[in-house]
């Protein structure tokens, strides 16, 4: 499962979410959000229209317009729906294993075909509504990942008081940077490498409060 | 100076660049690219038009159209022009000092008003021509920064054979991730913190070939 957003084929019945929809409403939402993901994957933001989404979902355009407003509203709901899952970060038994597995999930999501996750990130630069929803999703995912750091502290791999968020960002940012911003060719070794670098930094005290005397 | 793109007020006479323009052509280019930066900073990609750029620059729209084609061509030339400078990475005497100063430059550029650098990055998701130019600029900047790692190796701070690019990306990616992707509130301590984490990882051998036995 992607740490970013579920691909269309994984969307079954909509789980309880922000809107707490009932049966038919939930089915309509699932159909429409599937159609948004499919249209976005095929045509990108510029090809995404309420008409195409409605046609693909088999619902009336006015239904889509009334419930989601515009393309920004559709994208925001796709992003919000991605949080309505039971995704958990990997649990491999070691900090480095967990972070490497997480980075592999991220790399897989960012290089998937169709490129739904990257299209959603790109769309977040276009629509303020999608931007806010993308920020909520990042926050949800990083918050869920903090358990990885908590487990490492309990195993004695990291000191108590380790700054989980900064460690998680140090571990994962290079993968996003490489693929989303630099748009460089796939570097198969990067997920493991970035995880290992973050663990070495953490072991040296990089995420555990002020610099120890003599280190910085 | 920004590691990403010169703000408009810094653009004097166009230095020798890809197009090797002569006097009047160079002046026109400087006026037009200044106008692109100003329009982009004020209105973003969606407000950027050939008409507004031409009017602001005081040149004919047909001149702009003939030379740059469209908005994507204008943005690509702004990005290419950013490489036509003598920017060098900071030289503070220590690896951590250099990386921290670099991260402060990046943070300053990414939080500047008007937000030209972030607008250019956002535009690179819209225009394939701007995308390729943004990739060239990233490559130019990271290549110039490799001297920071070379100096650290010569000072004995890092082992020979250190992977300069991976170290630079580990040091800088968290700042970009925080501000460009997560769009989180400014974290004034992040530039120093990310630099220090990268240096600690590098000191532990994270960027010097295969993992030492027993570490990973």
What is the structure about, briefly put?
2 copies of one chain form a homodimer. Chain A has about 220 residues and is mostly helical.
Strand content of chain A: under 5%
Count of folded domains of chain A: 2
Computed over alpha carbons, the radius of gyration of chain A is: 19 Å
Number of strands of chain A: 0
**CATH architecture assignment name of the largest domain in chain A:** Orthogonal Bundle
DNA-binding region (chains A, B): 49-68
Region (Disordered) (chains A, B): 1-26
InterPro entries (chains A, B): Homeodomain-like_sf (IPR009057), HTH-type_TetR-like_transc_reg (IPR050109), HTH_TetR (IPR001647), Tet_transcr_reg_TetR-rel_C_sf (IPR036271), TetR_C (IPR011075)
Keywords (chains A, B): DNA-binding, Transcription, Transcription regulation
Characteristic key phrases:
homodimer, about 220 residues, mainly alpha, Tetracycline Repressor, domain 2, 2 domains
Write the layout of secondary structure elements.
The structure is a homodimer of 216-residue chains.
Chain A: H1 23-43, H2 50-57, H3 61-68, H4 71-82, H5 95-110, H6 116-123, H7 128-154, H8 164-181, H9 190-203
Helix pairs in contact in A: 1-2, 1-4, 2-3, 4-7, 5-8, 5-9, 7-8, 8-9
């Amino acid at each position: 499962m992607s740490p970013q957003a579920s691909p269309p084929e994984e969307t079954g019945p909509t789980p309880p979410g922000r809107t707490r929809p009932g049966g038919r409403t939930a089915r309509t939402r699932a159909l429409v959000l599937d159609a948004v993901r499919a249209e976005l994957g095929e045509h990108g933001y510029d090809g995404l229209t309420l008409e195409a989404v409605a046609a693909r979902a088999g619902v009336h355009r006015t239904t889509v317009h009334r419930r989601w407003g515009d393309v920004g509203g559709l994208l925001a709901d796709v992003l919000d729906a991605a949080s309505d899952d039971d995704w958990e970060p990997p649990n491999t038994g070691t900090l480095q294993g967990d972070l490497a597995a997480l980075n592999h999930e991220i790399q897989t999501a960012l290089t998937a075909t169709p490129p739904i996750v990257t299209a959603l990130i790109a769309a977040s630069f276009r629509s303020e509504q999608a931007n806010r929803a993308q920020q909520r999703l990042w926050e949800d995912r990083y918050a869920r990942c903090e358990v990885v750091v908590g487990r490492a502290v309990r195993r004695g791999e990291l000191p108590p008081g380790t700054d989980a968020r900064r460690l998680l960002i140090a571990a994962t940012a290079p993968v996003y940077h490489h693929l989303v911003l630099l748009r460089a060719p796939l570097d198969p070794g990067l997920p493991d490498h970035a995880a290992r670098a973050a663990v070495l930094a953490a072991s040296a005290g990089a995420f555990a409060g002020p610099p120890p005397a003599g280190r910085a």
